[in-house]
Amino acid sequence: MNWITNYVRPRINSLFSRREVPENLWTKCPECGTMLFHRELSDNLNVCTNCDHHLAITPRDRFAALFDGGAFVEVKVPDPVADPLQFRDQKKYPDRMRAAQKSTGEKEAMLVAEGEIGRTPIVAAAQDFGFMAGSMGMYVGNAIIAAAERATKLKRPLVLFSAAGGARMQEGILSLMQMPRTTVAVEMLREAGLPYIVVLTHPTTGGVTASYAMLGDIQIAEPNALICFAGPRVIEQTIREKLPEGFQRAEYLLEHGMLDRVTHRTKLRDELVSILRMMGRMPAPTKADLPAPTPTAPAIEATPDPAAPEPAPAKAPKSS
Ligand SMILES: [Zn+2]
Questions:
Q1: Residues within the annotated binding site for Zn(2+)?
Q2: Domain check: are 181 and 269 in the same one?
Q3: Which of 1, 72, 262, 271 is the most exposed place for a label (fewest CB within 10 A)?
Q4: Separation of CA 48 and ligand 1 centre (Å)
């Protein structure tokens, strides 16, 4: 033993661990500043337990919480041409893509899956704001078409969770062409008589708002989500006027007839099940499973053994 093992190494370890622990285990709520423990936060679907602020949630985490037993099957999305314009700003487009893939662990900005929610079969698509701001490029267009085709084939409703900064500028006009493409995909569902439900999450803006995100049969939004085409700052600078409080937020849009519902994330699943079953003319959702059969009490004919302890009374069925 010497001063290196006793003194230097612990100092070095503490320096590194000190830096890592808060980042991994704690998240600061951007609204109220409360430090939230990661497990507590993910148990509450990334909603602040103190002020109810809805933080971003990845499509994979959302699907895990949405589908029965967290079980879903991914729907394959055809790959588009990579970097069609050889686009370059401060970084090359393929480099940006690789960085986004590394940080999110996802291939692209949209995840499509099929499964059951509340025993109601659906196809779902969710946009990942963490992946290049959820921007709509050719892949997202392909994903929505794949989702709509799958839903039509299986005769299932489509539920879409939007989150985007708009179209992907690195794909130029090709990203803007996804607006009519996705509109046609939604039209395909309409012709097949299948419900299309959109859940708008914070933020949904630009070309996404101008196409598939506003074409739902039912439009639901998460509380306080920013939903707009051009953002409030741009509008303020253009018209040189102060905008009203809460402008372009979910509650404001609900009040002005742009939305059908504003629903808390923790209540969203139940609400989706009810709506989907109503639209599909299915019986009302089962709220709870029947309790598992308890070991049967000894038959009446059997002579009770006086030495044996009395059987425990059967537990009342748990309701939730
Ligand atoms: Zn908070």
A1: 29, 32, 48, 51
A2: yes
A3: 1
A4: 5
State mean pLDDT over 238-244: 92
Give me the pLDDT at residue 193, please: 97
Residues 165 and 126 in one domain: yes
Question: Which residue numbers belong to the known binding site?
Answer: 29, 32, 48, 51
CA distance 121 to 92: 41
Q: How do residues 152-182 score in pLDDT, each as one tens digit?
A: 999 999 999 999 999 999 999 999 999 999 9
Question: What value does the mean pLDDT take over residues 115-132?
Answer: 97
- 10 Å CB burial of residue 244 (0-12, 13-18, 19+) is exposed
> Which helix (H) or strand (E) is 235 found in, with range?
helix 232-239
CA of 251 to the centre of ligand 1 (A): 18
Cβ neighbours for 174, distance < 8 A, ≥ 6 positions apart: 84, 85, 137, 138
| Residue 306 pLDDT greater than 70, yes or no | no
User: Measured in angstroms, how far is the CA atom of residue 36 from the centroid of ligand 1?
Assistant: 8
What's the number of domains the chain is made of? 2
Which residues pair with residue 238 across a beta bridge? none
pLDDT-derived band at 295, boundaries 50, 70, 90:
confident
pLDDT per position as a tens digit, 61-73: 999 999 999 999 9
Q: How far is the CA of 49 from the centre of ligand 1 (A)?
A: 7
Domain boundaries, position 65: 56-279
